[in-house]
Structure formats: C-alpha cells, structure tokens
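Service request form, structural biology core

Requester: graduate student, group of Dr. S.
Request type: structure prediction, single chain
Budget code: on file
Notes: please return the result as structure tokens.

Sequence provided:
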Amino acid sequence: MPADLSTVHDALYALMKPLENDLVVVHDKPGTYYLNTRVPWRGKDLYFGGVVIKKNYVSYYLMGVYMYPDLLDGISDALRKRMQGKSCFNFKSDDPALFEELGTLTANSLQRLQKEGNA
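Core staff response, request fulfilled:
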C-alpha cells in the first residue's frame, strides 16, 4: 500500500476508533476497519461504517448519512465532492479540514442512530 494512503487511512481510522465503546468492531486489520451498531435492524446487524484502503484511494463509509440524508444538509462542497454514492467518501490524500468535518458528521450520525433507537 502506498505510504500516502496509509497516512490517509490512519487519519480516517482515528475518526471512528473512539466510537468502539458504543459500537461493535467487526474487522480491525491492516487496511480494513468496520463497525456495526449494537442494535439489530430487521433481524441483522446494522453496519455503522468503516475505513478501507483500495488500490488508489481510501474509502470512508458512513451508513448514517444513507439512512438519514438530512445529516448531509450544510456539509461543505469540498466534502460533498468526495462522496461516491450515498454513504461513501473517497480520499487520495490527507486533508485535515475535511477530516475534521467528517469527524463531526460521524459523531452526528452516531447520535442520530442512538436517538432513533438504532445504535
């Protein structure tokens, strides 16, 4: 894995790692990190999000923004440009300002899932 992507992965991983007390770690191995909620949804574990190194970028998945798209109201154009689909953000390089914004969005997602009884 390229060194740049490792740095990006580590920064994005640091956004989700503190949430382990409220969520369930499914995978935590080099290049792949997934969390589920503690509350099943429709009889299955509910995926919260994850960080995965791909060939040319790092993907940050955040299921809360898929379930509650209003969480995306007011995000910056720069972060929105990083979106691939409805719940994935892709990064090729370190971007502390966007990572800070994504960290806030991640915390808001967890709070919303908890409020709705899904975490």
